[in-house]
């Protein structure tokens, strides 16, 4: 490659040097003016991207250590600094969310409500004011209001933010639930069982940010913990196909364990697969190893720092979520008591390539201590065959019946025992969707609850 050089005594060189110095000075001023402007919520760069939760200690284990003695230390400090506009919105929201959570309870027993939303004018309404909107004031890109905690506790702890005729739940509230009008937020912990949430959970494994949720039963523990994938579909009645109705199913069996629901990301297919495969001419590049590390090394330590947990942990998912549940249990043997896979895509690896399937991995590993539950709907159809098109047929028309049945039979041959550490359920004709999984998820949930 040709390199251009100018003599240091050249007049042109002198002019270029002078122009460069001026340009650098302008750039320095511009950077100084913009360096304190936070990204909008929901963009690719999550809050705390320079010190992601889980990198060294689990997020929320302690408030982020200050760089200076004058830096905020508590949630109230961060809220006051945000109101004073001495910290960025992103850094304040990260510190509060992974500390004591929103809304903020002050030392003077007040509640600071903070809504991060740039559009419209906002109020807060709840049990404490008879659901009559109380105006909030705008500070930068947030809206804030402060209310005595005693007033809230005496009247009720539910609240929403209001703009015009729109009542919306606080998307950052630590405690939330659902009523006849959709999602609702709580100032303090509601009666159990309750739902908790942590937004924009970052990953040192370089995966996309996501929310994680926890369904927490009554009691003080120690609790077994079930880690479930596709978290958006588990609790919300507005989820795809009505969701898994997990709140109702857990209540029906009087569950005494915690369920941690990990939202998927736009990279779901990559994150939930252990090897590359090709679907309809498109190659999916697997990120299952990174996702397994994320669950084991980031999410699990965070959850165990928040709750009194036992040594019993499990994994659960459907379709590719079932596949990655089996893979995490395979990658971390003896760390998970059970892997519960509903309609798992166990043919993955053989759709368009010839890579190891989950069955091949488990056969090679031999009998291990993790209890395996697999199920499917569908039926054998015209018969389970071994031709190259079988993987796609099984996924599209049989709810993965054939490959699931083959996996279960192979595990029995490997040394697993039906009814002891191997369980299989066939729901004839059931479809590959949330309604079908909701209808039978009580089976694996009950199985997990019975494990010690």
For the structure shown, list the relevant keywords.
13 helices; Rossmann fold; 452 residues; 23% strand; Immunoglobulin-like; 30% helix; disordered N terminus; elongated; alpha+beta
SS-based class = alpha+beta
Strand element count? 20
- Characterize the overall form: elongated
| Annotation field: number of helices | 13
Structural account:
By secondary structure, the protein is of the alpha+beta class. The protein has 2 domains: about 40-170, Immunoglobulin-like, CATH 2.60.40; about 205-450, Alpha/Beta hydrolase fold, catalytic domain (Rossmann fold, 3-Layer(aba) Sandwich). The chain has 13 helices and 20 strands. The protein has helices at about 10-35, 75-85, 90-95, 150-155, 245-250, 270, 290-305, 320-330, 360-365, 390-395, 400-415, 435-440, 440-450, and strands spanning about 105, 110-115, 125, 135, 135-140, 140-150, 160-165, 165-170, 175-180, 180-185, 195-200, 210-215, 225-230, 260, 275-280, 280-285, 310-320, 340, 370-375, 420-425. The strands form 3 sheets. Strands 3, 4, 7, 8, 9, 10, 11, 12, 13, 14, 17, 18, 19 and 20 form a 14-stranded mixed sheet that branches. Strands 1-2-6-5 form a 4-stranded antiparallel sheet. The protein has a two-stranded antiparallel sheet with strand order 15-16. Strand 18 (about 340), helix 9 (about 360-365) and strand 19 form a beta-alpha-beta unit. The longest helix has 24 residues, at about 10-35. It is elongated, with a radius of gyration of 26 Å.
């Amino acid at each position: 490659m040709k390199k251009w050089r100018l003599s240091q005594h050249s007049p042109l060189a002198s002019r270029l040097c002078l122009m460069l110095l001026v340009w650098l000075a302008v750039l320095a001023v511009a950077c100084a003016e913009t360096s304190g402007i936070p990204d909008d919520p929901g963009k690719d760069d999550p809050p705390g991207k320079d010190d992601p939760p889980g990198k060294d200690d689990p997020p929320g284990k302690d408030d982020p250590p200050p760089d200076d003695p004058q830096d905020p230390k508590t949630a109230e400090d961060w809220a006051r600094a945000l109101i004073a506009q001495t910290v960025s919105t992103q850094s304040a929201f990260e510190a509060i969310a992974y500390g004591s959570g929103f809304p903020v309870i002050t030392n003077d027993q007040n509640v600071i409500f903070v809504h991060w939303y740039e559009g419209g004018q906002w109020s807060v309404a709840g049990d404490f004011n008879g659901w009559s909107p109380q105006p909030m004031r705008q500070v930068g890109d947030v809206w804030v209001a402060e209310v005595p905690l005693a007033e809230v506790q005496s009247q009720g702890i539910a609240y929403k933010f209001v703009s015009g005729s729109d009542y919306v739940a606080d998307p950052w509230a630590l405690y939330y639930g659902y009523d006849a009008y959709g999602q609702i937020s709580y100032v303090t912990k509601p009666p159990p069982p309750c739902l908790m949430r942590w937004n924009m959970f970052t990953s040192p494994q370089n995966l996309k940010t996501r929310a994680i949720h926890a369904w927490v039963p009554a009691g003080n523990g120690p609790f077994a913990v079930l880690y479930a994938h596709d978290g958006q579909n588990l609790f919300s009645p507005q989820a795809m196909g009505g969701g898994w109705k997990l709140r109702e199913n857990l209540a029906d069996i009087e569950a005494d364990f915690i369920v941690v629901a990990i939202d998927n990301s736009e990279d779901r297919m990559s994150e939930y697969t252990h090897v590359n495969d090709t679907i309809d001419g498109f190659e999916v590049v697997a990120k299952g190893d990174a996702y397994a590390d994320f669950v084991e090394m980031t999410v699990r330590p965070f959850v165990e720092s928040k709750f009194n947990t036992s040594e019993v942990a499990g994994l659960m998912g459907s379709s590719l979520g079932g596949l990655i549940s089996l893979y995490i249990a395979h990658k971390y043997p003896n760390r998970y008591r059970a892997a519960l896979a509903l309609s798992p895509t166990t043919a993955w690896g053989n759709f368009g390539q010839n890579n190891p399937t989950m069955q091949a991995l488990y056969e090679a590993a031999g009998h291990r201590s993790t209890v395996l539950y697999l199920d499917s709907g569908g039926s054998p159809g015209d018969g389970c065959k071994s031709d190259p098109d079988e993987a796609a047929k099984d996924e599209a028309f049989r709810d993965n019946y054939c490959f699931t049945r083959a996996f279960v039979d192979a595990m029995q041959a490997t040394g697993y025992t039906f009814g002891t550490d191997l369980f299989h359920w066939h729901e004839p004709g059931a479809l590959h969707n949330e309604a079908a999984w909701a209808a039978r998820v009580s089976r694996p949930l009950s199985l997990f609850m019975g494990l010690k």
